[in-house]
Amino acid sequence: MITIIAAIAKNNALGKNNDLIWHLPADLKRFKKTTTGHHILMGRNTFESIGKPLPNRTTIIITRNKTYSKEGCLVANSLEEALELAKEDAHVFIIGGAQIYKYALDNNYADFLDITLVHHEFEADAFFPEIDENIWQQIEIETFLADDSNKFDYSFVRYKRIAN
Questions:
Q1: Does domain 2-161 have CATH number 3.10.310.10?
Q2: Domain boundary assignment for the chain
């Protein structure tokens, strides 16, 4: 099973200047709980913004640079190669960035989308592709209001692929 996991704004914003635009501790906690124990696949820019392998996960960095390496991580030169490296994992997560998300969606690699939808619009330079409701069916949603820790209203939304 392959899941794309992302936090996006109402205008599909993902980030700006290779960084997150908002801070939602509830989203970070859910991301950690969901991905722990699994392979996480990401582009090099996403890895560089995180800065290190995440604990208790196998990090696979996707880059066109054939000589790139990072201690504690696996490196692949394509999403296909990354998926091959993760094939023993029953649940693989694609965690970004925008180019990797677009490629995975365009090529029908994901079975599920696990989206944190931030109910606000942000200025950004990286965006998540439009979610096509002819391909993706929403199967779960939990909505939360802003609080002392989480500055914006948000929803956890899960989609299942219904068509190619």
A1: no
A2: 2-161
The DSSP letter of residue 19 is: B
pLDDT at position 30 over 90? yes
- In terms of Cβ atoms closer than 10 Å to its own Cβ (0-12, 13-18, 19+), residue 149 is exposed
SS3 at position 159: strand
Q: Is 34 helix (H, G, I), strand (E, B) or coil?
A: helix
Q: Give this prediction's pTM.
A: 0.95
Q: Is 133 exposed, middle or buried (0-12, 13-18, 19+ CB in 10 A)?
A: exposed
Closest CA to 126 of 6, 4, 30: 6
In whole angstroms, give the CA distance from residue 115 to residue 61: 21
Residue 150 has pLDDT above 90, yes or no: yes
